[in-house]
Amino acid sequence: MTFGPDHALIVIDVQNDFCPQGSLAVPDGDAIVDGINKLLDVFEVRVFTQDWHPAGHASFAANHSGRKPFDTVDLSYGTQVLWPDHCVQGSRGAEFHPRLRAESADMIIRKGFRTEIDSYSAFFENDMKTPTGLEGYLRTRGVGHVACVGLATDFCVLYSAIDAVKLGFSATVYEDGCRAIDLDGSLAEARSQMLAAGVRLESWPVLSA
Fold first, then answer.
1. What angle do CA 179, 26, 109 make, to 5 degrees?
2. Confidence of residue 1 (pLDDT cuts 50, 70, 90)
3. Of these residues, 17, 19, 85, 111, which one is catalytic?
4. Please, which residues have CB within 8 angstroms of residue 146's CB and are 6 or more apart in sequence?
């Protein structure tokens, strides 16, 4: 199986800090890398996203007195989960996992680089209106369908897939190619939201040997 130029693979935040020993490690986050590498060979359009936070980012619990990771606060754009410091610009934690074939990316979208606003989606920051530029890139490439893999299912993959559908793309999430934080049942809720939005949830596609 190969996919034509109207299909794009979106590889979301497969970075050291989201993998084992990272500061915000997703359980088994590195288990998806080899499968994603195989997918890269069958998509003509390949976009990677990369969390890219300044050290003083508003989503970091350390920057809020008396708060701890996974607390929530109200910021200008709504409720924000507070995280451990992660994916700080220029740090090893912000780098892609070393086994990931990052050189295969046609484009790398860096997100969350504005100090006062977080960014889960590959398409928008968390105010739901500041674009990353991904939509325009995909339109100019003639893409109509996106396939999402990466970390984490219940945050950045969720928001990316739903935003893709809202923007008029069709979207598939390959669940084998994702792993979840699953914070207080967030994985089940994410799956429900994606299905309700019209996102297809599938296993790895069958690839040619």
1. 75
2. confident
3. 111
4. 7, 8, 9, 10, 138, 161, 164, 169, 170, 171, 172
φ/ψ bin of 128: left (φ > 0), alpha (ψ from -120 to 50), beta (otherwise): left
Half-sphere exposure of 27 (CA within 13 A, CB side): 6
Residue type, 4: G
| Homologous superfamily of 7-53+86-202 | Isochorismatase-like (3.40.50.850)
pLDDT of 29-71, one tens digit each? 999 999 999 999 999 999 999 999 999 999 999 999 999 999 9
* Tally of CB atoms within 10 A around 123: 27
Residues in Cβ contact with 25 at an 8 Å cutoff, skipping those fewer than 6 apart? 17, 18, 19
Closest CA to 28 of 150, 121, 156: 150
Q: Is 111 a catalytic residue?
A: yes
Beta-carbon-side half-sphere exposure of residue 193 (alpha carbons within 13 Å): 17
The residue from 87, 156, 163, 178 that is catalytic is: 156
Q: Is 156 a catalytic residue?
A: yes
